[in-house]
Amino acid sequence: MSIQDSDPPAEAKPKRESDRPSGLTAAQVESLDQRRSPATRIEELEQQVTRLTKINDALMKRVERSIDYHGNSFSLFQTAILLENQVRDRTEELNNALSNLEQSNAALTNANEEAETARTRLTDAIDSLSEGFTLFDADDRLVQSNSKFRAFYPDVEHEIVPGMTFEAFLRSILEHDALAIPKSEHETWIEQRLHQHRNPSDTVLLSLTNGRWIQVSERPTKNGTVGIYTDVTEIKKVESQRRERELEEKSIQLTATLDNLAQGVSVFDHHHQLAYWNKHFAWLTGLSPSMVREGMRFDQILGSPEVKRAFPDTDMVTDLINWLRYEGGAQPFRAEYHRRDGVVIEVRRNAIPDGGFVSTYTDVTEQRRTAKVLEEAKETLEVRVQERTAELTELNEQLTLAKAMAEEANLSKTKFLAAASHDLLQPLNAARLFVSALLDSDPSAEVNRLTERVYTALESVDGLLKALFDISKLDTGTVTPEWREFPVDILLEALASEFALLAENKGLSFRVVPSHVVIKSDMLLLRRILQNFVSNAVRYTSSGQVLLGCRRKAKSLSIEIWDTGPGIRKEHQRVVFEEFQRFVHPDSDVDTGFGLGLAIAKRSARILKHPLKLNSRAGRGSMFAVEVPYGKANGLNTMELTPALHKNYGLGNATVIFIENDLDNLEAMAALLQRWSCHVIGAHNGVEASRMMADEQVTPDLIIADYHLDDDRTGIDAISEVRRHCRAPVPGIIVTADHTSAVRLEVKDAGFELLQKPVKPAELRSLMSHLLA
Q1: Considering the entire predicted model, what is its pTM?
Q2: Paired sense of beta strands 679-683 and 702-706, if any
Q3: Which of 99, 438, 454, 461 fits a disulfide with 450 by CB distance 3.0 to 4.6 angstroms?
Q4: Residue pLDDT, tens place only, 89-121
Q5: Residue 364: partners with Cβ closer than 8 Å, 6 or more residues away
Q6: Could you report the per-residue pLDDT of 429-442, keeping only the tens digit for each?
Q7: How many alpha carbons fall within 13 Å on the CB side of residue 755?
């Protein structure tokens, strides 16, 4: 058998040109080979060398068998020639494979050197960072860290090596007391820190036992977690110093404020020991200022010889003990004590939350003297009236009428003073409680919250005092009308803008009938009268409509406000314009205010000499009207008249939080509110708003929020979050482009006001003025 008749087995055949993938040239195959990794190419070449070696062995064996079977010279010659050619081809292929193998080994060596160089450079770069660096893999095992990170924990630096788990690292630094965390909280802290590490979002702040503060910022990677550790000790020190300065300044201001009060103030803690007092406390109780010291018990102070000499007929200690023992301090205490020198001191005591109490001492000598003089004057007047009545019988009817009028005026003033004193004492008492709680609390964010509550309580007093002051000015004749002629439409349009949204939110139809008649009056006083009429109509009307319009008469224009409210019974109509008259059903939830609006309207109309009219039927509604004389239309300049009606009614310096996830809307609304002199805090959600409010240490007067926020949250959730943070029922407004009844009902049930987008500035300002009033 010849060599041509015995080819190698199929599995042993060398790779030929025909073995290339279909449709690829030799150059393309070589290009594909070069794209493979060096390790893959080396493995393929080794397989090829092995295959060629097997083929050579097979050929040699076949040649030897051929020689055995056909041992003639020609066959041997022919076999030698074929064998030589095949060996030459296989040898050439083997040399090529070895050459490729050498090249691949060289490429692999270069790649390893480049990788090692890159790894070294990366390690050097990480070590040169000013912050600590860590890299943990998907199994939370340490892959790499730099020297700055290890330097933060010198006691465990030798343990921080690649392969260490994150939990083992946490336990190691806790065991070596590297963190300022009580041992009882170690396990809880480890659990929380592991959760933060595996779900990184916000930064983590760590307090080390050596006084340093480390801020940790972690971010997930494709196969693990990267951490950056920054030393923020200096920043924390500056922040702490700033807060301490602010607290110290506020404490100084509060101390100065209390020292300048005309009242004496003393605060006792739950051990009944003196914690705070002002200079008037010692003077009003007859003590020498040098004798009063912090930590003295109340019986040492009030039972001292100096106090007993000043109040010889009084035992303040026994009164205080009885109040604490039998009432437990639950009810406010009030008593009057007479000093030896004739001074009358009113003492009030109220309990504070920590078990102590606060006392105020007020000199009421002049009030008691005035009351006594008035009582004596009243008795003298009655005697003189009786004598004059006996002597002048023809003037009996006039004197009787005068006496009735005097008694009616006296009764009205008495009721006025009684109601005013009650309404004044309520917010003042709240202010005292907040101040006492402030003085006994630790200096923290709680101080700011209580200070804001003191401010809110005093603002309530300020509102009532302003109303009383307005009545006083109107009664004493110090208000002088500024007469001018102007179209009544100016007032009608202003009132329509102010009350339209309030009426809409209550589901009322509010209609204003325009009129171009020119009238003569004081614009602001007339506006105040109409504001009170429209405000009462909207406030007391639960359903139906409110109508504002004008009726021409012979010599005057009647400006009328009609409503479909509960109406006023005939027996009440005569006194409805008197002070503190509020005829609302006891079960009604309507906010009736102070009952001074119509009294102010009556006095304003009396100054302007504008008659007021009232027409009402119980259960049918009411009509209030004011009659204004006509003016002349010649030479009017309405541009000069309107500025008086466009003031910041109650918006100046108001703190408003606006929550909106759209940046453009947030900036636009902030700009509008700032133009109205509001202090604006803009945020994207309730949590951010609460944090910003705490950073600025303010309590908002009003919260405005968009209904749809990020992460499926609503404006109702955001306002509720801020309310919980400041622990106060701050009024809220929801703005939304969603006009569905479901949203409207949800906002109403939450107790907030609703504005539909696009928001009209006039409607927004009107609603804000109403909520802040």
Answers
A1: 0.33
A2: unpaired
A3: 438
A4: 878 888 887 888 777 777 777 777 777 776 777
A5: 336, 344, 345, 346
A6: 445 434 444 544 55
A7: 24
